[in-house]
TrEMBL record:
Gene3D superfamilies (alphabetical): PDCD5-like
Basic and acidic residues composition bias: residue spans: 32-44
Domain of life: Eukaryota
GO cellular component: cytosol; nucleus
Family statement: Belongs to the PDCD5 family.
Organism: Apatococcus lobatus
Region listing for Disordered, in residue ranges: 15-44
InterPro entries named in the record: PDCD5-like, PDCD5-like_sf
Example of a GO MF term: DNA binding
Entry protein name: Programmed cell death protein 5
Lineage: Eukaryota, Viridiplantae, Chlorophyta, core chlorophytes, Trebouxiophyceae
Length: 96
């Protein structure tokens, strides 16, 4: 019962990772479009997290991201998955 939007984002990210390994060159227009999509996905992700987390929790997660970006990304992924599954029904007081 995954959210179709998150699944689409995951598939896009997987395609991006696979495309980067292939070494194929892209036209400037295609690169720009890909960058715009990536920015749009990141903005949507930030908006979902903002809706989930209280300001203090967002601040704490941002401090974690400064030191350990991968750890923060994992925490964000976990929070988004939990929200999609209905395991989080109200704004989180704390993260991580």
């Amino acid at each position: 019962m995954a959210d179709p939007e998150l699944e689409r984002i995951r598939q896009k990210r997987m395609q991006e990772l696979m495309g980067g390994q292939g070494g194929g060159e892209m036209t400037p227009e295609a690169q720009q479009q890909k960058e715009e999509q990536r920015q749009s996905q990141e903005e949507q992700r930030r908006m979902m997290l903002a809706a989930l987390l209280q300001p203090a929790a967002r601040e704490r997660l941002n401090r974690i991201a400064l030191v350990k970006p991968d750890k923060a990304r994992g925490i964000e992924d976990t929070l988004l998955r939990m929200a999609q599954r209905g395991q989080i029904s109200e704004r989180c007081q704390k993260s991580g």
